[in-house]
Every structure is written in structure tokens, then in C-alpha cells.
Amino acid sequence: NLKYSLYPQKRGCYQIGPTFLSSGALLGIGKDTHKEIPANSLIVYPRIVNLESLGLPSQSMFGSIREKNPIYEDPSRTFGKRNFTSTDSLRKVDWKASAALGNLQVKLFEASKTLELAIYLDLNFKSYETMHHYDQTELAIVTAASVANWGVKRKHAIGLITNGEDPFKADTPLTPLIPRKGNAQLMILLEIL
């Protein structure tokens, strides 16, 4: 068994191999064997950093989001009580508060919605200074990967739209990645980056 540890320093897709193995007896007794192991590809994801280290100090970069036109109320987000009216459902009655005040009280719920996070990444050569093009595009890619990771940790749907090109399909723009939730979506996004 041969074991090699690789410590990639740069994101990208690398070809490992092909590998050629030859073996034989020390004194030349017996038959030499040769084996070829075909090439494999290795994808190195971009680095993911804390948003604070990118100069994005807020834990909630998008502010507090409230739906102005509620369709569904979120029963886990109460923000007050009011007197019962005939149009209210009995499921909304706060029985403890009603008993304490002596008249029926109804819980008020905030409407909430799930964030869909679309990351727009401009990789156009003209958008960056020529002298610092490589460093600035790498920082943009690290930022996109870090924001995507932030979104997945908070259970948001994430997507990616970029004008970058697939290095394996020359002159082919990348298809937009529509927002979806979960770690599988993050892995696809990181592979694209």
C-alpha cells in the first residue's frame, strides 16, 4: 500500500495521475509486473472564512425581515396580545392571559418568510484592476463561498449566478444555480466556484 497526503494551496480542479507502477524481485527472479492507474480529478474548494474577517461584521447581514402582506402567520413568533373578536379562531386564544385578565385574549403572531439567497459573482476581467486581477477575483470567490456557507448554516436557500466560464467547456457560460436548501446545494456551489 502506498499512501500520499496532498495539501492543496489553491482552489481548482487538478488531475492526479496517471500512475505507473512496476515491481519485481530483488535478484531478478520471477516476473516483473507493471500496472497503470488512470488519472483522477481532485476538486479543491475555495477557502471559507468568517464574515467578520471579510469586514462584514453583522451576524444578520440582511436585517430583520418582516412580511408586510402576511399570508401565513408564524406561531413560533408571538409579539403581543389583543382582545378576542368574533372573527378570531379559538386556536389563537391565550388561555392563561384570558384567565388573568378576565376576558378572552388572542395571541398576535408575526408573519415570516424564508430567505432565498442569490449570490451574484462578477468575474468579468474588466471589472477588476489589471494589476490585482488574480487577488481580487480570489477574494470575490472566497467571499461568495463564505456567504453561501453562512446561508446554509442558517437554513436559507442559496443560489449562484456568475458570468464565469467552465474551464472544461471553453466559451460556455455557467448555468445559474437556482436557490435550494441544504449541504448538497453548498457542495455544488463550491464545486462551481
Please describe the topology of this protein.
Layout: E1 12-16, E2 19-23, E3 33-37, E4 40-44, E5 73-83, H1 95-101, E6 105-111, E7 116-121, H2 133-153, E8 157-162, E9 177-180, H3 183-192
Helix pairs in contact: 2-3
Notes on the protein architecture:
The protein is elongated. By secondary structure, the chain is an alpha+beta fold. Strands 7-8-9 form a three-stranded mixed beta sheet, with helices on one face. It starts with 11 loop residues before the first strand and ends with a helix. The chain has three helices and nine strands, in the order βββββαββαββα. 20% of the residues lie in helices and 28% in strands. Helix 2 (133-153) runs antiparallel to helix 3 (183-192). The longest helix is centred in the C-terminal third of the chain and has 21 residues, at 133-153. The mean pLDDT is 84.
Essential attributes:
193 residues, alpha+beta, 20% helix
Task: Briefly summarize what is shown.
The chain is an alpha+beta fold and 193 residues long. Helix content is 20%, strand content 28%. It has helices at residues 95-101, 133-153, 183-192, and strands spanning 12-16, 19-23, 33-37, 40-44, 73-83, 105-111, 116-121, 157-162, 177-180.
- H/E order of the elements? EEEEEHEEHEEH
What average pLDDT do the residues reach? 84
* Oligomeric assembly: single chain
Shape: elongated
- Bin the strand percentage: 25-35%
Number of helices: 3
Strand order of the largest sheet: 7-8-9
Task: Please estimate the helix content.
Answer: 10-25%
Low-pLDDT regions: none
Instruction: Report how far apart the termini are.
Output: 34 Å
Kindly state the number of beta strands: 9
State the secondary-structure class: alpha+beta
